Amino acid sequence: MTSALLQLVGIKKTFGAVTALNGVSFDLRPGEVHALLGGNGAGKSTLIKVITGAHPSDAGTMAVGGHPIARLTPAMARSLGIACIYQQPALFPDLTVTENIGLRLESTSPFRRVRHRERRRLAASLLRQVGAGFSGETGVHDLSMPQQQLVEIACAIGAGAKILIMDEPTASLTQPEQELLFGVVDHLRRNGSGIIYISHRLEEIFRIADRVTVLRDGESVVTRDLTRTGSAEGTAIGQGFDEADLIHWMVGRHLERTSVAIPAAGAPDRLTVHGLGCEISGVHDITFAVRAGEIVGLTGLVGAGRTELARILFGLTPADTGEIRLDGIPVTISSPEEAIALGIGYLPEDRRRHGIILDLSVAQNISMSVHTRLFPGGWLRPDAEQTLAEHYIHRLGIKTAGTSAEVATLSGGNQQKVAMARWLAANPRVLILDEPTQGVDVGAKSEIHRHIRSLVDQGLAVLLISSELPEILALSHRIGVMRSGTLTALFEGHPSAAQLMRAALGNLEPGDPPC
Amino acid sequence: MPSSSAPFIGKLSRFRFRHEVGLMLLLAIELIVFGFFGRRFLTADNGINIIRHSVEIGMLALVMLPVILTGGIDLSVGSLLGLCAVLFGKLWRDVGVDWPMAAVGSIVVGLIGGAMNAFLITRLRLPPLIVTLSTYSLFRGLAEAITQGTDAFTGFPESFLFIGTGAWGGLPAQAGLLLACTVGIAMLIHQTTWGRAIRAIGFSAEGAEYAGLPVQRRVASAYCLAGAIAGLAALTYTARFGTAKADAGTGYELAAITAVVLGGASIFGGRGSVAGTVLGVAVLGVLGNGLTRLPATLSTASELTGIVTGLLLLASLALPRLAAMADPSGTVRTEKQERP
Amino acid sequence: MLKWNAREFTVATVLAILWLGLAVFAPDFFSPQPLLSRLTSSAPKLLVACGIALVILTRNIDISVGSLYAVASVAAGHASHVAPTPVVIVAVAIVTGLGGGVINGFLVATLRLPSIVVTLATMVTWRESLRLGQQGVFINLPDNTQWFSLSMVGGQWAIVLAALGVLTVLAWAQKNLAAGRHLHAVGSDPEAARLAGISPGRATFAAFGLCGTLTGLAAALNIAQSPQIDPNTGRLLELEAVAAAVVAGFAVSGGRGRLLTLLPATLLLVSISPALTYLGAKPYWDKAVHGAIILTAVMADGLRRPKRQCRSQAT
Questions:
Q1: What's chain A's average pLDDT?
Q2: Can you identify the CATH homologous superfamily of domain A1-81+162-253?
Q3: Whether C218 contacts C230, CB under 8 Å
């Protein structure tokens, strides 16, 4: 066995109260594709950031090419040949592909003549290596996301990266583009590079990986080899494991559905969606209903279109096909203002950017979506606002210095409670919760869960979007699974975590309900 | 990072406290210096004089405040004042409308000018800076074109000139208008949902949109208000000088922005108060007047006022930033870098 | 190897139509001597437009150039009385311009203050300082400095060629020097630039410094054209320059635009007032027309831009 390109032992990383990595060990050999697998929030992104030097680790050791590294900075990581292909490429949209490659690879000294011919030749050869079907003279703003990824890969190859991290590179690729990418990966592997390959598509793992490591809850659960000998053309087989085992390792053993009261049969449909689609957000043909007093869980992988669906229902990106009915009445929703007036609330995923306004006070945030009701005629009534805020601070147990404290001073969990309080105050008929417990600590999480349950007891219809299977299983009456912009399965009964994961990964088995 | 932002917020609120107190100190220093060295500075007549001269800039600053609170800017208000003044004169003299009707016309023209800015900014999503920079040129250019560069409207009736030169119980007549504007804008900004929305938009336009606030409509209304009040300021300006010329209000946009920024408003939006803005206007107004009362600066007062205004504007921006940079624990808000 | 992108083509076409119209209705416009004079007086505007375009490339703006232009002119005028040679005049103007640019650059790039407010403040500070120091008094220049001690026609050619030379060098550098591409990179996406090892602060600082330098040089080319210096010179110059840059396709969101396009754009703008005059309109429409031109150009950009893309940057 050759010495490892990269060796991580016992890496730990915490953010405030949240432990993101809790002793991860990982190694990468030259000429191998090492797949990294894990559910959302398992710690993959944090691990990547540690490897690229974006986050310093709190504990553990790291060695690159056998040399221990004390404190890795992004610049050091680059010079050590570590490159990461992010899902959102960091390219210059106003410049051509050739220019982007040139700016990345050439010296940053300003008084240097740009050798356009060499640059074009280099770019063309790199683009050929990654099998890009576009010319170097194309402007980057004209490229699709996967094409931009190819440019990123070309930059990494050009920089002579020995350790290449690919974060869900195929998430938005078409089949032929995927094949090309696999070719690129194979090429890199044969040249002795090591590739850390992150993907949710299990068939891909079996297709190109040499080893696989599964992360769960910030810990490395297992690392296993795959072998190509004796397997079908183009695929590998796991040594002593199969897809089912991988899914099992990802979700863990302890996850089974806790019982939830099924709402009285015959409760009326609150929100009905039929054939809903929106071209821009890539969501299409969505049909489901949420009854009064019911929580419908919605899960799927990142990028499956769950948030996009929520944005359509809340009028942020209005639908261009299909029908939405509220209590049986067809409605059109073309702005959040209209959605709120119709009784739809949306707790967004990105709390700091969308869910709250950090610089405003707790009371001002809570009253924000009820201005017309709370302040008739548009005149602020500080006493009424105060009373409202105090009510919800008490009801949700928000820990704050007072109603006039700026929300920025609160902890993440309490900020999220403020965001929720805003929607409770709006008293909606339908509430869409998008990752309601992301980035909040365990205590706040269970409180938020309790509040969600008590909401539906009052007859609210809740659409709960979450990547955390335990959360979905613990709260939902029914569970929908989204994949590639549409709803692919709707479980009425008690699915297992493995069933959900299979549906999210697109590996439905007989016995799983199609949508 | 809630843990690190807590002390920052605390520091910020202390800073804001110091800011308005600092302005009052500045004002006090001005009054003492000019009162001590200036000739006939601390007289009732001069007080009236200062107020008279500050009315237009005060009005423009008061409506610049909500625009800046949304994170925008309006460079066109001074030019719009000129255009409104000229059109007012045209309506009264050449069309033959009674002055009160012509006055309404002036405000309507201002409203239309503001609506034009609003349309370009909120509908076509063009940057406020470039939109108002071009209307800054366009409005002034129209005023010059209408007056053929040299024409001036004079001979307005006494009843109209009273607005600019008359007095009401010892106070200048236009002070009533400024007071009404101050109270009105203060109530709008600090006591209505409109002001709350404007502030929220300035802090985070996306956050405001997700809360269901009508972001584009509110932003548009701020520019329209700025336009309408520019039309009103055109009236007091014309009444004060007795003539309406195309160069009316030249440079007033700068004075208004300076007063607002000096008054503690953040050019990135969200933060700022009417009290601070009024203090900013007072500091500038007293400065401009006081310099004409010092024997040493009598002949160069207007230039000195301009220089000190520019330097004050820079200092009020740069000092907090320098303080934040010098303090390693302070978090500088750089994520909202301006995009012109 | 000039590649004609859409914007260059549009601007050149409009310019051709305008000139064709002038050739038919006002053939006087093209008589050699007035034409050369007109080009000479446009040369400084071209250089200032170059400076502003470089600043716009980095997502900033500089509206203090008009005042700085006047300050540089006056400084050079005073220097001419100490050492009456063209070299000194040009050097003093350039150094003054550079100084003004460096001050703006420090405030915007180092202190990270918004460029619009900073340059608004420096604009008024320079202008009023000049009024204070000069009290509107014109400065007479020594005899041998006009037209750089050349004949009038020779001086005019020198000025036009100097401006074209500087434009050519800058356009070459924009395309072929790493620094030129860095300005594009920083304006296109500062964060990506940082990741690629390019310092946005340094690039912005350099753009402001260059803008000041070009303004100083433009002032030198301007004062060589007349026997005295008007301390009120350069009013509205910033607007004309911004108009030229916007018409030439420099996006105010940064990262886009080619300096060479400034040539047809500036020619177009400076042909409009004479065209209006020749075609019977009065000169006091100038300012309104300028405003309308900037508006039209940005509106064209705004309408062409896909709606969705700008969603996250709204307001």
A1: 85
A2: P-loop containing nucleotide triphosphate hydrolases (3.40.50.300)
A3: no
Judge if A1-81+162-253 and A269-343+429-436+460-507 fold alike in CATH terms: yes
Span between the terminal Cα atoms of chain C, in Å: 39
Q: Which of residues 119-148 of C touch B (CB under 8 A)?
A: 120-125, 127-129, 131-132
Contact status, residue A323 vs residue A494, Cβ threshold 8 Å: no
> For residue A295, what are the β-bridge partners?
A462
pLDDT in tens, B139-174: 999 999 999 878 899 999 999 999 998 888 788 989
Q: Exposed, middle or buried, B141 (CB in 10 Å: 0-12/13-18/19+)?
A: buried
Q: Going by DSSP bridges, is the β-strand pair C228-229/A194-198 parallel, antiparallel, or unpaired?
A: unpaired
If we measure between CA atoms, which residue out of B304, B33, B70, B296 comes closest to residue B197?
B70
Collapsing DSSP to helix, strand or coil, B179 comes out as helix
Chain A interface mutation, best of B188, B190, B210, highest count of A Cβ atoms under 10 Å: B210
Least Cα separation, residue A348 to chain B (angstroms): 8
Please name the CATH architecture into which domain A269-343+429-436+460-507 falls.
Answer: 3-Layer(aba) Sandwich (3.40)
- Are B137 and C132 in contact (CB < 8 Å)? no
Judge residue C121's burial from the number of C-beta atoms within 10 Å of its C-beta, 0-12 exposed, 13-18 middle, 19 or more buried: buried
Alpha helices in chain B (DSSP H): 2-37, 44-69, 77-89, 99-118, 128-146, 158-165, 173-191, 193-203, 205-210, 215-241, 252-262, 274-293, 301-326
Residue A351 tokens, joined = 């709390």
Q: What is the residue extent of each domain of chain A?
A: 1-81+162-253, 93-160, 269-343+429-436+460-507, 351-427
To the nearest whole Å, the CA of A258 is away from the closest chain C CA by: 40
Q: For chain C, which residues make up each domain, given as ranges?
A: 6-18+27-302
- pLDDT tens digits, one per residue of C266-299: 999 888 877 777 777 777 887 888 888 888 888 8
Does the pLDDT of residue A379 top 80, yes or no? yes
Q: What is the CATH number of domain C6-18+27-302?
A: 1.10.3470
**A441 within 8 A of A17, measured Cβ to Cβ:** yes
